[in-house]
Amino acid sequence: MGASPYEPHRVKPRCGPEKESANVSVLMMEYAESLSPWGWLSVLGQATGITFRLVFKAGRALLTRGTHDLSLHEYIAYVGMRDYQSGLSAVAIQNLLPSTSKTCSRFANKHGIPFEVIQLPDATIANRLGPPSAKNVVIFFHGGGYMAPALSEHASFAFGYGEYSTRDVAVYFLQYDLASEHANHYPRQLQQAVSLLNHLTSSKQIPPGSITLVGDSAGAHLLLSLLLHLKHPNPQVPQVEMNTPLGGAVLVSPWVQLQSSATSLETNKQEDILSAPSLAYWAKNFLGDAVPDAWNSPLTAPLEWWDDLPVKRILVTYGDKELLRDDAEKLCEILREHHAETTALAFPGELHVHMVMNRFLLIRKPCESERAYVKWMRDQIDGAPTSDGPAVVGVADQTV
């Protein structure tokens, strides 16, 4: 047999005292497999092939620009995202991108934000952006199919696009372990989310009402899993002792059904930055040998579980061009029936996690979902209601 393109990453300890150190990220990576020299050559060949095919598609798009509404830049950006995500393995992407801690550290240094890396007893890593004594706390779960580390745009998103710089806010950015074919399967990420929440509410004595959960895509999936777990514990995951509800939760383009057959997977396959095969591959890596259950497939949870979600206010946003649109709509219907203080907003013309991709892909057009998110979070932190009551807005009558 030939040499494997992958090498096991140094195994990190699963126990030990809590530590807070800016150097932890150097030692503790969120992925389990490193590329060998042969693996790097293989990835280089794959990336080169994807790039050549993308150049060909760009040339063809130049000849047919009148047949679609996108600029050439948008077309290349969206197609490129689909092609690179579907053409590279989870291990390749994990090795190519900087760790979540490194990304958060760079963001904090660039913007002059207090920063600390926290290692919890189960080896979970969290990154704090903001003062340790902040009155308001945001716990952020980044997206990326459970297989990719956070982007710098995730850090900007988590920090409210600059809104928190003049407010008493700290963001705790969970660096959950990244799933691949062979490592870090469910329910590891839920265990880590619980570890961070327990640390803040028990060890740090932060009132739950001062905490807002924010997540996009797979991070929103993790957020939902955590909310369901708080009242209906997963037997494989430690419990969280909370006597009062969390202050709020924001779900942006939530990935709520890992094994979906939604119509939007087909109707939006040429519109979104995701592809159905990529979603299926990431879901398989995340689940490992686990079977679907109410925590990893939230839309299958008993309806009565949604009656007692321990959170005061919820915001859900998604775009009508998303592959995940139909499942997001189902989630919003459930929340509308079972959780009074829910604001659900669908944005015409927007793609998956549009506010993040709009910046990451350098599109930089006006983004309505970003505007709505910033306003909701500003009101959440300042303690002001965003409306006189719950709002559920459909695609057809979106007015934000």
TrEMBL record:
<dbReference type="GO" id="GO:0016787">
    <property type="term" value="F:hydrolase activity"/>
</dbReference>
<dbReference type="InterPro" id="IPR013094">
    <property type="entry name" value="AB_hydrolase_3"/>
</dbReference>
<keyword id="KW-0378">Hydrolase</keyword>
<dbReference type="InterPro" id="IPR050300">
    <property type="entry name" value="GDXG_lipolytic_enzyme"/>
</dbReference>
<dbReference type="InterPro" id="IPR029058">
    <property type="entry name" value="AB_hydrolase_fold"/>
</dbReference>
<feature type="domain" description="Alpha/beta hydrolase fold-3">
    <location>
        <begin position="138"/>
        <end position="354"/>
    </location>
</feature>
<dbReference type="Pfam" id="PF07859">
    <property type="entry name" value="Abhydrolase_3"/>
</dbReference>
<protein>
    <recommendedName>
        <fullName>Alpha/beta hydrolase fold-3 domain-containing protein</fullName>
    </recommendedName>
</protein>
